[in-house]
# Entry
Amino acid sequence: MFDEFPRRYVIMVLKEDLRHARDDCSFPGERSDVVSRTVLAMAIQRSFMMRNTEENLEKDVAEEMAQHVLNFFGFGERIIDNMLKTDDRDIFYMLEDLGILKTEREETTLYDGREWRINYWTLKKNYIANLMSGSGFHDGCGGGNPDTMDPYEDLPDDIWSRE
# Structure
């Protein structure tokens, strides 16, 4: 009986951790929601997997790209194109091809009558939310109910023996 108590307690704690991990990965996609690095990295990976069947994008690379992009966006959803360097713009174009970002243009007339164009980059939050709610992915977010998942499924039986 004493040996079972710690195991049940650990299972309860792990299930709670799984719930929080799923919360970190969830993203409703509302306009006011902030995209986290974890969510953006997973969206980049999933979008890459959908478009590229021969290769996979490494998790570390996706996280670096997500961090790099979020350093520009901060808590916003739109940035001006003029602040990007050529290398940064190349990454943004790649993410536009993946469907993560989109470009927008605004035109205004200056006092002297000339037209002025301002180009923006925008996070496609609805697309990111759709990627995050995809049911076919089992990479630590989504897929599976924490109450029915067994965190000890892959552990060998002798792990609980005391020496």
